[in-house]
Amino acid sequence: MKAVVFLGDRQLELVDYPDPVPGPDEVIVEIKASGMCGSDLHYYRAPLRPRSELVIAGHEPCGVVAQIGSVVPAAQARVGDRVIVHHYDGCRVCHSCRSGWTQICSTDQKRTFGGLNADGAHARFMKVPAHTLIRMPDNLSFKAGAAAACGTGTAFGAIKRMGLTGDETIAIFGQGPVGLSGTLFAKAMGARVIAVDVVDERLAMAKQFGADVVINALNDDPVSAIRAVTRHGEGADKSMECSSNPDARRQSVEALRRWGTACLVGVFGKIEFDVGQAIQQMKTIMGSVTFSKNLLDDCAQYIAERGLQVEPLFTNEFRLEQAKEAYDLFDTQKIGKGVFVFD
Question: Spelled out in words, what is the top-level CATH class assigned to the domain 154-287?
Fold first, then answer.
């Protein structure tokens, strides 16, 4: 099979791999849709790596079970199941792994498929432990499932973690795929949404996804603008920061009212803010890393039950042989979300 590998320094190749064979507790998923995630760009732009360290890219896997290992129970997987892959594995016995949070496994056995150390989904077939599979609702498309597998699921997990309610106002900084998904979910839950970005095209998408107010941070100070449109000028009840930009992170804390909660989702980088203000105004600042297996299941069900339109996140669709063109375009960060689709 052909598979995409990131060489580093904005280079990739389509490499020939043998079709994978499942181990006793593993399955082979025939990939139907494999999403392109913003965090892919960290590996795509990284310094060149030795070929011995390369893995197949892609960590938003969705497809159909094609083969199962000898000890996989039918309750866990059957040939023909439509599935999303929770793209992590760990020791499987520590507290985090037992609760479905394998990405924060407390041992050195942690793996991320399509990331640094395990083969991912930018290929026809993907081998994964059977326990990573989430069965998809019948009315959920493969593209929607791929979105839930990382970016959209990450937004769902953050909103659940901060406990957003329908009578609150949330400011979402960064309207890339994760932020747009947050806008979609927050509106579905009844909240008022303020969307912040520096790209007018992304703010236009935020309006389409239900944002009540949009703010271009290049034109207006987001903190002042958020206070101007919230009750008594107090600020937002909740905020979610999805850009990893240090200024946006600081602003996501400053734009909160007293007792407000900021959830930091964008990975890497640092944050600087006035600790005294956070203490005196009783603000809560938390982080949220993707989602557990149970939350991925909940996210897929939530999208399906409410008929949420997730597919418009994908502004560009590619075949695997177009991978170089796809990532060159994605690297400009002027498009929405891209996805590789398979027959």
Answer: alpha beta
